[in-house]
């Protein structure tokens, strides 16, 4: 199959994931669509509970019980991952799509050595013999900036610092030179200075290896210099998607504007009060028939309570799920 | 560990001295025949006219040099008698331990992986039965079913008279081994199940899955290695119970180990022998706990490096 | 205190009720206990009534569980046996758990050398194999209900002691205990009013499980011929008598054993349900 050079690496269409809990159905992801071009970086931004992590786990088939991916497609190079058998899916995970997680301490196995946790993926996917796998693991550790890599291989996770652990996680994710790297809040559990180092590392690796990056975060400020585009999620939907500069300068959704206003900024006049978004986060056990943001929206009108606004283009590669995108003032 | 053993000897010595009328006094009351020479040597060794703590020190000194005294009932050295019977008991305990460990690991892991499945519910039900069932009654029922009704397995002793094959010996081991292990299969499998359920929800298991590793590696290596850590300490603590269970099991199956000898010694009021076996049992428990600590360290690197 | 603890107790009861098996077990245990205690009133025969015309009968309408070598009705003897076994079980659990709770709370509350001493004692008691020690102690006494219960209790306080000490240690540091101390409350008052009510949960669970354990220990001792002596039947000595003739009269082995199994199973289910009800977070999801 030949594909045009600019065909997306990963294309997600109308993804729906629900959790069937004792307390009712939780609509974690309600029909989101986005695409990732080769080498592109997209940020999925939202509050906790907005469905951004579940959206990412759905693509890898790792949604925990009782969650079920109930609709949509996730096309990797045109092949729908959601149709894969367990076996075929295992060949994709770690090899074509890799993921790093929020807390590197709990995400690494405490009772296995770093070397073991690195080489097992090399040996499984690339069939490297033990020796070669060890060498490759050491190279990878060097690559992500861990000094004295060979002796680190026999260490256990608790012997490393938080930042080093996340570097190890990144090295594991890079093992098979994946097409897509999904990073689920990889800096949230780290110190601020270490956060910046990890962001720099991922930027650099993305540039060198040409992999696409899906960066999930609640922190809009973090993604400014890191990604090409930003998708803002609210109540399991993408409410706005735009090139990063345009999103910052011209938000076209009141929720995005709210997020921007609650963000501290260096170049703004001191003394400005940070605003927070009024109201409570949405209750995802309800199946919305109106704009989910309407109860908290300063611009809401009658129509917002009657119909869900679709994600419509606002020009220049942007789209907003608001009935009144032009009323949003930056 | 040494203070613990020291404390144990004091308690055991006190227990034996607490026999109504003292060990040799209560024996004489029963009017049972006992070799006067043995009795005399017992008295001389302890110096029954001496204060009790002197008797204790004398006994302890002798015990430390491996001299556990002379049996009232056989006039042979207690240490020698125990040494003869110990292999049979260790064999039974070892078989039961292995059986329990293997079955509990398999059942516990499978129950956790397939939580709320038929297998899981059956496992829970059976383990409640296994824990609530008196060991001796389970032994009787197995004897009835497999020995008397079906005639498949021998119900007593270690080998058939006249036969000496290893296979024959193994067949004799099956019923006592199963009886002794059932309580631990039940307990450990439930414990491993809940510890495994925790491990399966852990972030590192999600990482292992995200790496595309086969489920066998995800469950059998990443989850199990972690789930085993708390289970090992429970297993070691339970070894004390395994020794108690061996006493009953050996009685019902006429297994010639120290457990059976212990009950016989009790009926013969053979206090030096009782004391010797109690001491051995306690030392075994202390040693098991030490082994458990070592295994714990092996399994959990976070402990090892502290 | 009572105002704040009432709703809590209420919700524990509510959660326990959701545990259908535990509630069913509670009913079964209560009925069996009452039936056994009332054995002299409701048993179909006298427990030692020898009837040579109907020896060794398998279960029938007249003798639901059959009869033994002397024609004694097994059902009657199982009921009488339950009287002894359940009584010893309850008594031993009560005394053993009380002892453990006392040792554990004193050790945890006062700390220091006393704690060290009591906990070393606990370690020692844990290290000596229970059943052999029990056998020796039982051989010293004229086996009667109270002495059996005492001996078993003496060997089953350690787990409770350890658990209670741990709980007391953590509660001791809480602010309301500090506050009570600041207000000049004495040790007895602090322990009795502020600490112990908060460790009632684990103690209750421990006591419930101890009942089953004590019943099994008692029957094991009786089975070895060291428990309450015939002609007073206990479940253990019924089984001891049955052992020799098991092949020809299996009902004599089956029924007393089933009685033990049923009671211990019921008690363990109650304990399990209590544990879940008191600590819903510890449940497997």
Q: SSE string of chain B, helix = H, strand = E?
A: HHHHHHHHHHHHH
Q: Which ranges of chain A are low-confidence, i.e. pLDDT below 50, for 5 or more consecutive residues?
A: none
Q: Write the element-wise H/E pattern of chain A from the N-terminal end onward.
A: EEEHEEHEHHHHHEHEEEHHHEE
Please name the two chains that share the biggest interface, counting residues whose Cβ lies under 8 Å from a Cβ on the partner chain. Answer: B-C, 51 and 43 residues
What can you see in these coordinates?
Chain A is α/β, with parallel strands linked by helices and about 325 residues long. Chain A has eleven helices and twelve strands. Chain A has an eight-stranded mixed β-sheet, sandwiched between helices. In chain A, β9 and β10 form a beta hairpin. The N and C termini of chain A lie far apart (about 45 Å). By secondary structure, chain B is mainly alpha-helical. Helices cover about 75% and strands about 0% of the residues of chain B. Chain B is globular and about 75 Å long. Chain C contains twelve helices and no strands. Chain C has helices spanning about 1-20, 20-35, 40, 75-110, 110-125, 130-140, 145-155, 160-170, 175-180, 185-225, 235-245, 250-280. The longest helix of chain C has about 35 residues, at about 75-110. Chain C is elongated. The two termini of chain C are about 30 Å apart.
Offer a few descriptive terms.
heterotrimer; A: 330 residues; alpha/beta; eight-stranded mixed sheet; four-stranded antiparallel sheet; C: 285 residues; 12 helices; 0% strand
Summarize the structure.
The complex is a heterotrimer of chains A (330), B (306) and C (285). With 330 residues, chain A is an alpha/beta fold. Chain A has helices at 52-60, 86-92, 104-107, 114-126, 130-143, 149-152, 162-174, 192-209, 244-249, 254-261, 302-306; strands at 10-21, 24-36, 41-45, 67-76, 79-80, 97-100, 180-184, 212-217, 229-234, 237-243, 312-315, 318-320.
């Amino acid at each position: 199959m030949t594909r045009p050079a600019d065909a997306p690496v990963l294309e997600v269409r109308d993804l729906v994931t629900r959790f069937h809990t004792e307390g009712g159905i939780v609509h974690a992801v309600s029909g989101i669509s986005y695409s990732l071009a080769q080498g592109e970086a997209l940020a999925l931004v939202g509050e906790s509970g907005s469905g951004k992590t579940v959206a990412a786990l759905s693509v890898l088939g790792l949604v925990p019980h009782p969650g079920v991916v109930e609709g949509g497609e996730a096309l990797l190079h045109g092949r729908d991952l959601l149709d894969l058998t367990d076996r075929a899916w295992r060949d994709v995970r770690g090899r074509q799509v890799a993921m790093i997680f929020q807390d590197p301490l709990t995400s690494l196995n405490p009772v296995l050595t770093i070397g073991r946790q690195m080489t097992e993926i090399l040996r499984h996917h690339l069939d490297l013999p033990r020796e070669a796998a060890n060498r490759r693991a050491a190279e990878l550790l060097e690559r992500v900036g861990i000094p004295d890599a060979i002796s680190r291989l026999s260490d256990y996770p608790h012997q490393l610092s938080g930042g080093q652990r996340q570097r190890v996680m990144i090295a594991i994710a890079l093992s098979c030179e994946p097409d897509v790297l999904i990073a689920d809040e990889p800096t949230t559990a780290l110190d601020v200075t270490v956060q910046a180092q990890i962001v720099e590392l991922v930027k650099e690796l993305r540039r060198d290896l040409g992999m696409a990056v899906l960066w999930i975060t609640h922190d809009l400020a973090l993604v400014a210099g890191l990604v090409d585009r930003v998708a803002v999620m609210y109540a399991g939907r993408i409410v706005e998607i735009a090139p990063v500069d345009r999103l910052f300068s011209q938000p076209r959704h009141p929720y995005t504007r709210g997020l921007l206003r609650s963000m501290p900024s260096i170049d703004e006049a001191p003394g400005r009060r940070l605003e927070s978004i009024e109201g409570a986060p949405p209750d995802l056990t309800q199946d919305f028939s109106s704009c989910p943001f309407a109860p908290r929206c300063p611009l809401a009108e009658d129509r917002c309570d009657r119909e869900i606004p679709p994600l419509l283009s606002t020009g220049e590669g942007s789209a907003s799920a608001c009935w009144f995108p032009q009323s949003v003032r930056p | 560990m040494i203070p613990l053993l020291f404390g144990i000897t004091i308690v055991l010595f006190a227990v034996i001295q607490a026999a109504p009328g003292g060990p040799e006094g209560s024996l004489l009351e029963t009017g049972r025949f006992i070799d006067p020479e043995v009795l005399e040597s017992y008295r001389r060794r302890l110096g029954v006219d001496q204060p009790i703590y002197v008797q204790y020190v004398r006994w302890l000194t002798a015990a430390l040099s491996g001299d556990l005294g002379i049996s009232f009932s056989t006039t042979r050295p207690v240490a020698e008698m125990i040494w003869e019977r110990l292999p049979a008991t260790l064999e039974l305990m070892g078989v039961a331990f292995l059986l329990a460990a293997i079955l509990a690991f398999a059942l516990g892991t499978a129950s956790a992986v397939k939580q709320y499945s038929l297998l899981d519910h059956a496992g829970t039900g059976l383990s409640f039965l296994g824990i609530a069932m008196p060991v001796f009654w389970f032994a009787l029922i197995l004897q009835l079913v497999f020995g008397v009704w079906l005639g498949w397995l021998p119900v007593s002793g270690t080998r058939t008279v006249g036969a000496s094959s290893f296979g024959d010996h193994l067949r004799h081991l099956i019923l006592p081994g199963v009886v002794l292990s059932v309580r631990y299969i039940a307990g450990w499998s439930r414990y491993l199940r809940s510890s495994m359920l925790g491990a399966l929800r852990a972030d590192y298991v999600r990482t292992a899955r995200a790496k595309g590793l086969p489920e066998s590696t995800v469950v059998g290596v990443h989850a199990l290695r972690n789930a085993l850590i708390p289970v090992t300490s429970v297993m070691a603590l339970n070894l004390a119970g395994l020794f108690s269970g061996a006493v009953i099991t050996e009685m019902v199956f006429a297994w010639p180990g120290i457990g059976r000898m212990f009950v016989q010694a009790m009926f013969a009021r053979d206090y030096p022998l009782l004391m010797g076996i109690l001491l051995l049992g306690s030392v075994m428990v202390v040693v098991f706990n030490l082994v458990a600590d070592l295994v714990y360290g092996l399994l959990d690197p976070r402990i090892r490096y502290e | 205190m009572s105002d704040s603890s009432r709703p809590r107790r209420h919700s524990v009861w509510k959660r326990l009720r959701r545990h259908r098996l535990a509630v069913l077990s509670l009913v079964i245990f209560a009925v069996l206990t009452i039936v056994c205690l009332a054995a002299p009133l409701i048993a179909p025969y006298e427990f030692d009534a020898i009837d040579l015309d109907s020896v060794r009968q398998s279960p029938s309408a007249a003798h639901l569980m059959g009869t033994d070598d002397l024609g004694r009705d097994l059902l009657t003897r199982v009921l009488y046996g339950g009287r002894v076994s359940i009584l010893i079980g309850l008594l031993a659990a009560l005394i053993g758990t009380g002892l453990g709770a006392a040792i554990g709370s004193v050790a945890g509350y006062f700390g220091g050398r006393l704690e060290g001493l009591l906990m070393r004692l606990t370690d020692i008691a844990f290290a000596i194999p229970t059943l052999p020690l029990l056998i020796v102690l039982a051989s010293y006494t004229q086996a009667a209900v109270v002495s059996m219960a005492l001996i078993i209790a003496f060997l089953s306080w350690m787990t409770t002691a350890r658990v209670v000490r741990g709980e007391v240690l953590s509660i001791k540091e809480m602010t309301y205990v500090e506050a009570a101390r600041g207000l000049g409350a004495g040790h007895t008052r602090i322990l009795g009013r502020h600490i112990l009510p908060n460790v009632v949960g684990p103690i209750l669970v421990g006591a419930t499980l101890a009942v089953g354990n004590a019943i099994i220990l008692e029957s094991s001792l009786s089975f070895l011929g060291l428990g309450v002596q015939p002609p007073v039947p206990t479940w253990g000595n019924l089984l001891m008598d049955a052992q020799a003739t098991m092949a020809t009269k299996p009902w004599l082995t089956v029924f007393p054993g089933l009685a033990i199994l049923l009671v211990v199973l019921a008690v363990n289910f109650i304990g399990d349900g209590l544990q879940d009800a008191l600590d819903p977070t510890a449940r497997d999801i």
